[in-house]
């Protein structure tokens, strides 16, 4: 949303594209899972009386809209991309096929995964981890509004303490909120590390890929 009340802020989109281009130019293979909360949240719809399954499918379509917007922004900056979706919509995107995604990455294309897992009751966090495992990703980079994992909500408590490194086990023991439980457990079981960082700070994505201590690393 950027500074808007809802929808897609072209300025924020261009900023993200610039951040992604920096690591793309370094030769990093990039696959992206994008949310849809700026357009519609299935959980919010359900709490307002909408059928949860219907709401979740609407949320999945919102992620495809965001995926198309990001795809356009990336290609405007000269990057080659492919949008793959868990729900079939061949007029605008490829269906998700692991081998095809692998091939795109090998060829240096950025792959955007839309429509979550294609199933209701699963978040885009879970979709990100699932796709990460399938394509043998080295790490999940979770871009958020905060600069890492804290012992309590830093937006509500100014004295919150940030962790630079923390184990999966300690996250569970302390009851910290990194991802939804399904996504987090899937990442833990498959030993796929997570880096939680502030996506809105210019240069963070590049610094992470260059090995700098940015955000919080969650690992075994």
TrEMBL record:
Residue ranges annotated for the Aspartate/glutamate/uridylate kinase domain, each copy included: 9-198
Protein name: Uridylate kinase
Stored PANTHER family: URIDYLATE KINASE, URIDYLATE KINASE PUMPKIN, CHLOROPLASTIC
Pfam family, one: AA_kinase
Cell compartment(s), UniProt: Cytoplasm
Enzyme Commission number, as recorded: 2.7.4.22
Regulation of its activity: Inhibited by UTP.
CDD domains referenced in this protein's UniProt entry, alphabetically: AAK_UMPK-PyrH-Ec
Protein's job: Catalyzes the reversible phosphorylation of UMP to UDP.
Entry keyword annotation includes Aminoacyl-tRNA synthetase: no
Organism for this UniProt entry: Flavobacterium tiangeerense
Gene: pyrH
């Amino acid at each position: 949303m950027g500074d808007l009340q809802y929808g897609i802020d072209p300025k924020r989109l261009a900023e993200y594209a610039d951040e992604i281009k920096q690591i793309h130019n370094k030769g990093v293979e990039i696959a992206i899972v994008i949310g849809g909360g700026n357009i519609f949240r299935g959980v919010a719809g359900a709490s307002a009386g909408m059928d949860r399954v219907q709401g979740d499918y609407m949320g999945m379509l919102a992620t495809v809209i965001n995926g198309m917007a990001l795809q356009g922004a990336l290609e405007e900056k000269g990057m080659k991309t492919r949008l793959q979706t868990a729900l079939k919509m061949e007029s605008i995107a490829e269906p998700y096929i692991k081998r095809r995604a692998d091939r795109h990455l090998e060829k240096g294309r950025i792959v955007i995964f839309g429509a979550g897992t294609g199933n209701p009751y699963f978040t885009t966090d879970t979709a990100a981890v699932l796709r990460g495992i399938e394509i043998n990703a080295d790490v999940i980079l979770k871009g958020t509004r905060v600069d890492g994992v804290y012992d309590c909500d830093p937006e509500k408590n100014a004295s919150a303490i940030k962790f630079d490194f923390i184990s999966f086990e300690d996250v569970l023991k302390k009851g910290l909120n990194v991802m939804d439980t399904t996504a987090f457990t899937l990442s833990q079981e498959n030993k796929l590390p997570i880096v939680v960082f502030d996506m809105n700070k210019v240069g963070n994505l590049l610094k992470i890929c260059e090995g700098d201590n940015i955000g919080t690393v969650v690992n075994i």
